[in-house]
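note to self: dont lose this again. the chain is below, predicted strucutre after it. 372 aa total, dont forget to put it in the shared folder this time
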Amino acid sequence: MTPSKMKGTAPKKTAKDAKKTAKKGKAAKSRRAATTGTLKAPVSRKKAAPAGKTSAARRKTAPRRRSNAPSRKDFLRINDFSLQELRAILDLARKQKPLARRHALPPSLPGRQLACVFAKPSLRTRVSFELAIRQLGGNSLFITDKEIGLGTRESVKDVAKVLSRYVDGIMIRWFDQGEVDELAAHATVPVINGLTDLLHPCQVMADIMTVEEHLGTIDGKKVVMVGDGNNLANSWMNAASVFPFQFTLACPPGYEPSAEVRARAEQAGAQIAITHDPTAGVQGAHVIYSDSFYSMGQEAEAQKRRRDFAPFRLTADLLSGADPGHIVLHCLPAHRGEEITDEVMDGPHSVVYDEAENRLHAQRAILATFLK
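---
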């Protein structure tokens, strides 16, 4: 007789029997919990889809924004962004600069296509943006206003919609800020403001990068622009509403910057001063900024502007009252002998060519941030 059949001896449980017993125990526990109201319903890890919309539809219409993405799709104005976001762009530019100089920059935007739309000729804007996208592994397309007829041959909306189907980003150097805003509103890809008559945000980002390379930080500095209250003055006022520095414009009467841009910047906390006395304006300045007295489209006014702006030429005598460690910037192209003398342009305080180079590095960081 086998041990399992011996009288008084319990049969040995197998693994199969233990499994059945466990199942019965769980079932009993569930029944007891159900009667006492303590049974927890299983929690789904997926949120229920809204009525009439599937999960797939939600993913298609509302793609998830990456955690380090900028708060806006387009780079149109400096004051569209927080100090933290602008600092991240400048930090990236500083990080990429030595790598790019050694031809060791990783291609973070492989295969991306950038449309470069121009209504104005340019040396720095075209070369820097086209090089920047190539250094990131992408390609560029040079398009003129005569080819696309933005707002004339085709509506701004249609151009935006079509280009968005072809490219991954649009850089535009244009006259009318309103048309650039409209282009960005209808485009589904990022639009970068390369310059308009109202604003020049990419230039000022490169300027701030240059200031901080030479002075450590722009925080607490006095930045003085001597000349016209143009698109650069407007973008400097926008920057002053985000970065903690003081901005002064020394200009002739009648050449003040946009009153609307100034009012918004001051409402946001910008420290702005306008003076018609260039000598008083540059007193104690850490950064002296110059630009041409007349821009593209203002050639008919050139003679009058030369007369009006003559006292605002950057000379060694004018800058003698500035901070001893001041730096001189000029966005170029420069009319030597008009808004700036050779002595200042080529002098020890000038960082003009560092500034020009930083257009490439600042704008590459902007592309790397927005075209991801």
